[in-house]
Each structure stands twice: as structure tokens, then as C-alpha cells.
Design brief:
Blueprint (H helix, E strand, L loop, with lengths): L2 H15 L4 E2 L4 E3 L2 E3 H11 L3 H14 L22 E3 L5 E3 L5
Antiparallel strand pairs: 1-2, 2-3, 4-5
Helix pairs in contact: 1-3, 2-3
Protein name: 14796_t:CDS:1
Keywords: Membrane, Transmembrane, Transmembrane helix
């Protein structure tokens, strides 16, 4: 299992906790809306462009109308080793550790 595979799996988990109904290699379906641009970024992520990962999560947050600057709601960043560290609060809010590349 490579770091890329691990990050792709984390993207799926993020999508799941963000109540995105489906995710595949081409697009993410959020409710009835199909988000093609995010799908393309996920494909780029598999192609080892780590910066795309942040863009993907930020776009998910924007679409979900989440204030990413608010502490405890959705905190985003990429670890220096290229792996996201994710912790789920007891109340079910997704938290992602913040570290800069």
C-alpha cells in the first residue's frame, strides 16, 4: 500500500463523513449534483500531485458550505510525509490535522 493509495482511501472516507453519496474514479456525486472537477482532481491525486489533495478537500468544504477557518468544524492540511491524519470527534464532526508541506 503506497501513500497515494492511502490518501485516496482517506478521500473516500472524507466523502463518506461529508455525506457525499458516491465516489468513483470519475466524479463525486453529492446529493443530486455531480461534481466532475473534484473527480478529475482525484485522478490527478493518483498521479502523485499532492497539492491537488488540498484543492479537492477545500472544494468539498466549499460545496458543503463549511467554514474551513472555524476551529473544530473542518481543519485541513497535508502532513510533510504526504499522509493526512484524520480524527473524528465524538459528535461526528470531521477533523483533519493541520500541517504545511
Amino acid at each position: 500500500i503506497t501513500n497515494i493509495d492511502l490518501m485516496f482511501d482517506l478521500i473516500k472516507k472524507i466523502a463518506l463523513h461529508a455525506r457525499i453519496t458516491n465516489i468513483d474514479s470519475r466524479n463525486i456525486i453529492f446529493g443530486n449534483q455531480r461534481l466532475r472537477c473534484i473527480g478529475n482532481n482525484i485522478i490527478a491525486l493518483v498521479n502523485r500531485k499532492l497539492s491537488i489533495l488540498r484543492i479537492v478537500i477545500l472544494r468539498i468544504a466549499i460545496i458543503l458550505r463549511i467554514d474551513i477557518l472555524r476551529i473544530g468544524i473542518l481543519r485541513i492540511g497535508i502532513l510533510k510525509i504526504g499522509i493526512l491524519r484524520i480524527g473524528i470527534l465524538r459528535i461526528g464532526i470531521l477533523r483533519i490535522g493541520i500541517l504545511r508541506m
